Amino acid sequence: MSLAVIITALRDANWRVRVEAAAALGRSGAATAGPVLEAALADPYWQVRAEVAIALGRLPAVNAVATLIDWLNDESPYVRGAVATALGNLRAPAARAPLQALTGDPHPEVQHSAARALAAIETPEPTGPRRPSAAPDQRR
Asked: In this predicted structure, what is the pLDDT of residue 99?
């Protein structure tokens, strides 16, 4: 499916289609999807906003950190948690203070997402080749 078709689906009347489009854009890795996704953070459905935040967190080439930080105050705890997760995935140092404030959120899931995001920001990304996982034992 072309990127243009997915972007068009992000404007579909059905919120479920918009959720799937946001997820597909996040999986695409296309930096050009960033501005479209950022605009979609204003969607009236929290389900769409949450998926858009997760998608932005999968696009490190997109500089959406400031926009995501603004959405840490969303009315939906699901969106706040998704935004925190996205900021952690992006390892955004600029998000430290707002995420620290979010650890006092009234919703435990949001507190947990903020704490995980802070830990991710403080943990250096692994460098070098990945070690292959051990093959499962074939003897039975």
From this structure: 98
Residue 111 belongs to domain spanning: 3-122
| Token digits of residue 140 | 């039975």
Give the pLDDT score at 21. Answer: 98
Give me the pLDDT at residue 63, please: 86
In a domain, 129, yes or no: no
- For the chain, give the percent of residues with pLDDT over 70: 88
Task: List the one residue out of 67, 45, 47 whose CA is nearest residue 57.
Answer: 67
CATH number of the domain where residue 109 is located: 1.25.10.10
Angle between helices 77-90 and 108-122 (to 10 degrees): 10
Residues 6+ apart with CB under 8 A from 3: 25, 28, 30, 32, 33
